[in-house]
Amino acid sequence: MPDLPDNPSPLDALRGRIDEIDAELLPAFIRRMETAVRVADCKLASDTPVSRPGREHVILDRIRASVPPEFADDAVRLYRTILAISCSRQRVRILSAKLGRRVALCGIKHCGKSCLGVALAKTLGVPFFDTDALLEADAGKPVRALYREVGETRFRELETESVRKFTSSAPSHAVVALGGGVVSNPFLTPDDLRALGLIVWLDVPVPTAFERMAREGFPPFLADKPDPFGEFNRICDARRPVFRAAADAVLDLPEVLPVEEAVDRMLTVLESKVNSK
Fold this sequence. Notes:
The chain is an alpha/beta fold.
C-alpha cells in the first residue's frame, strides 16, 4: 500500500481502504485458481467434463441471494468472469495432460503460425519454437538470404538437419511453427514429421496470406515472378494435399480473427483430437 499523507483527504483515505481490500481479495482469488487446478486433476482422473452448467446456475443463484439487491447484478457478472477463468484453467490443464507431446503448426506462408503459436504456447504454459528461426540460428543468416545463397535443394537439406536437431533435443511439451515448406521437404521422412508432434494445419484463404506477405515484401521464390499472386496460388494448390496428408488435425480459419478467438478454436480442435482416441 502506498504511503499516505499525514492528514489524508477523505478521498485519499477511501482509496487507501480500497487498496487494503484489494490486498485481501487477490490472495483469495489466487487460492481459488489454485483449487480450480486441483479440481481439474480430479476431473481428469475421473474423466469428468469441465463444464457443468447446472453447477454454475447454483453458484450464481447463491451469490445473487447472498448480497444486497443493489449489488446482485454486479456480483453475478463478477462471478461469471471468475467461473469463466476457472473453467479455462481447468480446460487447459486437462488438455495439456492429455496431449503429452508437442503441437506443430503447419500451413502456407503467412497463415498465422507464429502469431497463433506464440499465443497458444502462452496459454498452455509451454515454450514456443519456430523452425525458420532455428534454421537461421544454425546457419547464422536469415532464411531468405540463405535460400538465395544456396538454392532450394541445399536449403531443404539444411532445413532437414535443423529439424532433426530440434526433435532430438527440444522439450516434449512445446508449440512449434513449421516453415511453409517443412511438410513438403523431400528430405524429411514421415517419421521425421511425426517426431515434431501433433501436426495441426492452419487452413487460411490464399488471398489473406498473400496480402500479409505483400505488406512485408515478397520472398525470393516470388520476388522475380511477373505474377506473384498467381505463382503463390499455384504453390499453395500444390501444397494443400501435402498439408492435408501430414496433418493430424485441421484448424479452418476462413476469416481473420482476434488472436484470443483463434486460440480458443485451436483448443477446441486439440480437445476433439485427444478426446477421440
